[in-house]
Amino acid sequence: MPGFNPANFTVAKAKPLPVVLLLDVSTSMYGDKINQLNAAVKEMVSDFAGAEKNEIEILVSIITFGAEVSLHTPYTSAKDIEWQDLQVSGATPMGTAFSMAKAMIEDKEVTPSRAYRPTIVLVSDGEPNDSWQQPLRDLVNDGRSQKCDRMAMAIGSDASNDVLNEFVSGTENKVFTAQDASQIQEFFKFVTMSVTTRTNNQNANVVPKPEEVEQLVEQEQNQQPDESEDEFI
Q: Could you tell me the residue range of the domain that residue 138 belongs to?
């Protein structure tokens, strides 16, 4: 009979579920748009932290594009993120952001093979001002990144639906259009529910259908109590 070996009693390491946000921080996002975006992402990260389980860790990475393309947040467990508000500047170098996201997904040291299928989320209110066609096609059609779930939101009428529609091609998702900044929260509720639902599935690689997510969001909203009834008068 073999002797006691404490190494035989290790706990399995949580499997990562990566979420990559590509966020437009160009000067056209100034004011209510960036304020609503900051609030929505902060709430989403908090909800992700609450949905994490022992066996699943939601990793969030944020790439911003404006005056420069920046890795605002490298992959970090949602529960460990200390949110720093985004600031606006510059133009819309979306193509470079696509290239950065592609490099992150393809690098197995950064996005390990044991991870669940990543979700990539794109938010923009304008047209790319750099070369975007090839970087986007590489992201959508080639390598590991083509297997990612992808969601996109156009803010206002100046956003490029051609680019965003191509971004979500190959998925069942449609581009979410926010006519004003107040609808940014609605989109991120959808993203939150889509990701957190996967943590409850037997196979977290299975992405729920958009209509299923919409029903879950509606059910959650209907279950929220009327705070006015609980006020102390």
A: 13-221
Q: What is the distance between the alpha carbons of residues 121 and 19, in angstroms, rounded to a whole number?
A: 8
Q: Which two tokens stand for residue 145?
A: 């990144």
User: Which residues face 149 on adjacent strands?
Assistant: 119
Amino acid (1-letter code) at residue 87: Q
CA dihedral 86, 88, 90, 94 (to 10 degrees): 50
Q: pTM score, two decimals?
A: 0.89
Candidates 125, 59, 57, 136; CA nearest to 101 is 136
Smallest CA-to-CA distance from 132 within 84, 93, 182 is with: 93
4 within domain boundaries? no
Instruction: Give, as one character, the DSSP assignment of residue 83.
Output: -
CA–CA dist 135, 126 (Å, integer): 17
Q: Is 60 exceeded by the pLDDT of residue 121? A: yes
3-class DSSP assignment, residue 154: strand
Rounded Cα distance between 99 and 146, Å, is: 13
CATH number at 170 reads 3.40.50.410
- What pLDDT shows up at residue 57? 94
The two tokens of residue 212 are 């299923």
